[in-house]
Every structure is written in structure tokens, then in C-alpha cells.
Amino acid sequence: MIRVAVLSGLGHAIFVAVGLLVYVMGTRIGHQRRHPSAAMGWVLGIVTFPYLVVPLFLLFGTRKFARPARRPHGPPLEATEGGPPWATRLLASLELAPAVRNARVVLHADGTQALQGLLATIASARHRLDLCTYVFAYDEVGREVARALLDCVHRGVRVRLLVDALGSMRTPPGMLRALRRQGLQVRRFMPLLHNPLHGRTNLRNHRKLVVADGERLWSGGRNLACEYFIDRPGHPAWADLSYEVHGPLAAQAQAQFATDWRVARGLVLRRRRKARSTAAPALPAPPAHGPLAQWLPSGPDHADDTVHALLLAAAYHAQRRIVAVTPYFVPDDALLDAWCLACRRGVQVSVVVPARSNHRLADLARERALRQLAAAGARVWLSPAMVHAKAVLIDDELALVGSLNLDARSLFLNYEAMTVFYGPQELHWLAQWSDQLLARARPYHARAPSWLRDVIEGVVRSVGFQL
Residue 241 — φ and ψ, nearest 5°? Predict the structure, then answer.
């Protein structure tokens, strides 16, 4: 019996050691940088529950598929004309496509305008239409969009529809099959049951974009469901942001979609030279004058955490204000500390979140960050209605709008897409829009949590939004 127990204990120790070795090899050799709390969570899990956590790490542990490239020594990267040099030079160093001038930019003030713009973008397609969404609901909006896509097919347009498998889990399979039978090309991004060599189940595609002929783009934070567009009895539409761009930015978004389409087929872009092929697509001739904008993707297909890097740099370059609107606010410690330091050097930091979001865990997890920001002098505002918009304004220099929430999942795990606007008209519009949100919100008053509440917040923040 003693010998059996010793052998059993030795086997257990060997399994734990092998699990830790797998973790080290998977994170260090694969350049999988993690937040310290996430790393600690994985290590403690492997030591405590190795037979459960090691398989989970093999299934969910990979965070990046692209590897960083060595940039040769040389002269400083050139900044894009019209944008702040510190931002455009940083994004160039992250191997992103440069900012481009476009013929037209339209920001949507409400869901009705957004839906009209979406349907107009679909109707404008003559040769090709690409649509990517996280949620494709089987409701009034989803059915209307489906009919518009079928109209495209009937007039000879090649239509590709990419939906996230988890986000659209409630979409009836029959709906997608019917679209496929009538001529649409349909793919589900990262099904829950798939070959793990093709990607990790927890790496979701949260991008929302519609591109017509590489010339017209509709994008932002809205999913294809009623709550993002129209008021219903007892259920007002959520406050959200989307936009249309006519011009070369659409070609950059189309190149992004082409990459995601290949990934959904199981072709993970591991090599840097393949990933770089999407950074500089062939663009139509840009107008000499027009709104300046830059496509800013983030996710496992980029070696760097691109949006996180820009937000950090912005925190240290901002001189007057930082305004952030987000449904879920669970930033990592580095970004939170940077915004607190910005407050202490006189920058007015304002954060707008819903008083109660559609995810109770997110509301629990955000409290520590909100208390810390408020203590540093930031203004935190609670909107009475659900806010699903994602926007960050930095002084009068730039604004980010798109799909990325200010939480660790969006910042470090999801496939996301933002657009950086540099034009004065777009910045003025977004400043007025955020002021209207602030006017309807009430100030947040921090309260010291109970011991139990503090523990629960810490667990939810570390486990639910880091791993």
C-alpha cells in the first residue's frame, strides 16, 4: 500500500511538473505574454487541479498566433501627415496600415440612422459584399439584413457572411443553412467543437464590419440584433456607435475580412510574413483632401496588443482630456495606472459606463477600477440606459471608435477592430455625442466594499476577465 501511494504521489508530481513545463514552453517560446494575475491563475490552477487545468490550458491557453518581427535599426518611422506624430509613428512601428484620407465619413447618431446606413451599404454592392458580425440574431433586424443579403445574391453580387460561433450561438442553424442554399457563402468563426490546431475556443471574433466592393465600409460596435437599432415596448434601443466610411479605409477593412475568412476555414496565420500581407492592401487612389482615418485591428492575428499600446501612449501624451465610453470597464493594471497618473498631472479623465449593464459579472469586476480612478480624480458617470458604444477621445487629436470594450478580454484575447479618426469634424461630432451622454448620466460615488464583496470582485476580475 505504501509503495502504491508513493508511486501514485510520484506520478502526480511528474504530471504537475510536465504541466508547468508545458505552460512555460507555451507562453515563453510562443511569445504569449500575459498579465501577472492571469499567469498566476494558470500556474496555481496547474498545481492545484492539474488534471483539469492542463487540458484547459492546451485548449484555451494560446493568446497569439502572430509573432513579433525584428525591426532593423534605421531612421525613425515617418508620421502620417495630419495625425499626431506620437500616435501615427507608434502605429507604423506596430506594422499597421497607415492613415488614409477618405471621401466621406458618417457617424450614426442613433439606431435608425445606423440601420439605414447598414442597408444602404449592402444595397450599394455591385461585385462583392463581405459581412462580419459577432451576433446575427433571428429577429426583426436579423431577418431584414438577411433579406438584403439575398437581394445582393440575386443581382449577381458575391456575398460572404462570417459569424462568430459563440456570439451567434442562438441563431437557428436553419437560418444560416437557408442563406447558404440560396447562394451566400457562410462560415462560423471558431466553432465550439473544432480541431484545436485551427485555433482556441476562447479567442472570439468580436469584429463588426460590412464592406461593399472595397470602397464603402460600415462598422462600429453594433451587432445585428434589435436591441442595437430599434426601440421596442419596454426595451429602448441601446446607446451605441457605428459609422460609414467611403474611401480607401474600406479596402483595409476588406483585407482584414479576407484574413478572418481564412482563419475561419482553419488556416491560422502563424507566420509573420503571411500576417504582414494584410497590413498593406492595394488601395484605391485616395482623395487629396478628406477625413483622415486609420484602421486599427487587434487580436491574436497581431503580435502586439495594438489598441492597448495606443491607449497607453495616449495616456502619457494627453494634455487636456481623455473621455472613454464603454459598456464594460475592466482594464489591466498598466492602463488603469496610466489613466490615474494622467489625472494626477492635470488631465481630465472621464469614463461613462451603464449604471447596470447586460452582464452582471462585468459590473462586479469593474468596481475596483472605478474606485481607483475616482480616488485619482477622474470623473466617472453612470448612464441610466444600457450603453454598448465603445469610444475613446484624446484631447482634440484623435478618437477611437469600434468593437473593443475596455476589458481584458477585448484588449488581449478577442479579434477586435477599431478606427482611429483624426479629422476635426469627426472629433467635434464625437465630443458633442459624449457630452450628451454625460448630460443624461449621474456621477458615480465610490464606496468602500465589504470584505466579502472585495473578495468576490477580485475573483471575478482575475478569473473571468484574464484567463
Answer: -130, 135
